[in-house]
Amino acid sequence: MPNYTLSINGKTQTVTADADTPLLWILRDELNLVGTKFGCGIAQCGACTVHIDGIATRSCQTQISYLEDVKITTIEGLSENGTHPVQEAWKEIDVPQCGYCQAGQIMTAAAFLAENKNPTEEEIREAMHGNICRCASYNRIEKAVKVASEKMS
Q1: DSSP label at residue 63
Q2: Taking each helix axis from N to C terminus, what angle separates 121-128 and 138-152, rounded to the nearest 10 degrees?
Q3: DSSP state of 88
């Protein structure tokens, strides 16, 4: 098996894995970064969302062999102490119920708000629509994204 050198949360990590190993399993099983969750395994639910060069990406379908020379950010690396505006808004609005999807929701929202600082409700809904919440916390998620955008302005 080949070695891969990855930049994850600002640190260089070297892992040995098959070329087609999904990033999700490297994060969780090899690097103990377990904030990124397994949801569906087919890139449909969003629980496994991370940033690759700032773009929200589903890690369950992203092969390790494509990830050298990119910057990977997980929920653990979004901010050192949980003070990213999206994380603060999530706490302020008390978004999570079970919490399972929340890391993916937060990562999607953070990438979206990095590109669109003052979104409309429709734009927020469109940006977040690919993330499934089993508890149906969608109204609170949308409200938290709006609060986060205000914090970022």
Answers
A1: B
A2: 120
A3: H
Structure tokens at 18: 């098959």
Tell me the β-bridge partners of 56: 51
Which residues pair with residue 71 across a beta bridge? 7
Q: What is the CATH number of domain 3-78?
A: 3.10.20.30
Span 45-86, pLDDT tens digits:
999 999 999 999 999 999 999 999 999 999 999 998 999 999
For the chain, what percent of residues have pLDDT higher than 90? 98
**What's the token pair of residue 101?**
């999807």
Tokens 């629509």 sit on residue: 129
Coil/strand/helix, residue 126: helix
* CATH hierarchy code of domain 85-152: 1.10.150.120
Is residue 57 exposed (0-12), middle (13-18) or buried (19+ Cβ within 10 Å)? buried
Residue 80: the pLDDT is: 87
Does position 41 have pLDDT exceeding 90, yes or no?
A: yes
